[in-house]
Amino acid sequence: MRKVCGLDVHKDSVFVCILSESGDKLQQKFGVLTPDKLTKLDACLQRCNIRISNYVSSTDGKSYKGVVQCLSEGITDPLELIKKIHGRTINRVGREIITASLTGIISSTDMKAHKDKGGLSFLEEI
Predict the structure, then answer these.
(1) What end-to-end distance do the CA atoms of the chain give, in Å?
(2) Of 14, 13, 16, 12, which is closest to residue 4 (Cα–Cα)?
(3) Among 13, 118, 20, 7, which residue's Cα sits nearest to residue 69?
(4) Deepest in the core among 33, 41, 51, 78, taking most CB within 10 A?
(5) Stated pTM of the model
(6) Mean pLDDT per 10-residue run, the chain (126 residues)?
(7) Under a CB-based contact definition with an 8 Å cutoff, are residues 68 and 116 in contact?
């Protein structure tokens, strides 16, 4: 049997199915983060006192998505989160300001809301 794969692209998600040579099937759905979802996600983060979007160039950029991915995995330590921020942003704004913008109160309920709001599976591509 040969390896076969397929993509099913929708407006708000992408479904991937891979059938291996041994017959094992891998299926995964990836959510797509639309501008509307980004706005809602950032509003949730702002309510938790995570204000990183005030300093990064785009909420669609790698720094912001990296921070959101860490938060969704339960990583809330600002010293860990700052590792996801681009060095130029840290140099431009200052390490203390970025660290303060990453210091918030994130509960497990907030983390679940972030996952639900943003469909964070798209971040696995980063």
Answers:
(1) 31
(2) 16
(3) 118
(4) 41
(5) 0.61
(6) 71 74 78 74 79 86 85 84 94 93 71 53 40
(7) no
Alpha helices in 4-101, H assignment, sequence order: 35-47, 62-72, 78-81, 87-93, 95-101
Contact (CB, 8 A) for 82 and 99: yes
| 8's tokens | 């099913």
The residue assigned the tokens 């798209």 is 122
Q: Which amino acid is at 119?
A: G
Instruction: Give the angle 69-91-53 at the CA atoms, nearest 5°.
Output: 40
